[in-house]
Amino acid sequence: MVNKTTVLIVEGDRDMRNLLHDEFWGAGYRLREAQNVNEAVRAILETPPDVIVTDVQPSVGASEYIALLRSVAPQCPIIAMTAFGSAKVREDVLQAGANACIDKPMRLSDIRAKVEGLVFKSNRRRVCDVNR
Q: Is 84 helix (H, G, I), strand (E, B) or coil?
């Protein structure tokens, strides 16, 4: 069975982006990629993804960056990855609209499991909304 879920991977580090790509591609996800905030916003506006996996973009500021993504993708689950690892950054990211925040380094299987959980929850909510 082919997975119809589209994941937008936003990661400035090419090696990390390739690792994430391989993890999700191997699981059958459709993928889109962006290197920075501008590419991410453009990709979302062109074709909204089902879930966004993003590195926290320090050039914009963690909470501002997530708030920007949330403004262009209000219903899309967002998983933020951060190398900063402080409780304050995680709190800011979650308050700005991320559904989850994962510290780097992380296991790729953990991030895929988080995506699968959020996509399942999102799909379930859509079914519930349709049945009302």
A: coil
